[in-house]
Amino acid sequence: MQNSTDHMALAADREEDAPQQPSQFAQKPNFPPLKPDEISDGQIQFREIPVPGRRLTPLKKYWLEIYTPIYEDMKIDVRTYVKDRRRRVQLKTRSDTPDISNFQKCADFVHAFMLGFDVIDAVALLRVEELYVESFEIKDVKTLRGEHLSRAIGRLSGKGGRTRIAIENATRTRIVIADTRIHILGSFASIKIARDSLCSLILGSPAAKVYSKLRTVAARVPERF
C-alpha cells in the first residue's frame, strides 16, 4: 500500500515538472474599439444628396427639423447648396462622430425626405433600426399606357387617398406615390406586404379583395414604429 502511494506521488511530481504543451488553438485577439478620428483612416467623408425642384420649397420650410437631429443628435455636419443648378444637401463627418453608421442613417433620412416623405416619418430612419426605403415603378409590375396607367394610379391612391392610407395603417408603413414611381418606408416584412397589395391593385384586383387579404396578413406583422 505504501509503495503504491509513493508511485502516485512520484507521478504527480513528474507531471508538475513536465513542460507545458502549447495550446493548439491561437489566442483570441482583443482589439480596442476605434476612436472617431480613426474611422476610415481618419479621413473625413462627404456625401451629396440631390434636391429635386419639387422638394426645394419643402426643404426650405422644414430645414430646421432636418438640421437639428442630424447635427445635434447624430453629430454630422450638414449644409445646402440651392443657388446653382446642382441643388444638393451635403453631409460631412466630424471628429466627434460617435459611430460611422450615423453617416449612412443621415443620408437615408435626407434621401427619404427628397423622395416625398414627411419629416416626421423620415426621421424614424434615425431613431429605429431595420427601417428601409424601397422604390419601384408601375411599369416594373405591368406595362400600362394612357388611360390604363391613369386608372392604375387612381386605384393605388383611392378617393381622397383612402386606399393608400388604409394600406399604410394596416402594414404600418408610409407610402409615397410620385407619378409612376412608388416609394415605401417601413420594416422588411411590412414593405413586402404593402408592395404585394400595391401590385395587386396595379394588376386590376378590386380594392375590397385587397383589403380582406391585407387584414389577414397584416395581423401577423409585429409593430415596428
TrEMBL record:
One of its GO terms (molecular function) is RNA binding. It comes from the Eukaryota. The keyword Iron-sulfur does not apply. Residues 130-203 form the K Homology domain. It is found in: Nucleus, Nucleolus. Residues 1-39 are annotated as: Disordered. GO terms for cellular component: nucleolus. Keywords: Nucleus, RNA-binding. The keyword RNA-binding applies. Belongs to the PNO1 family. This is RNA-binding protein PNO1.
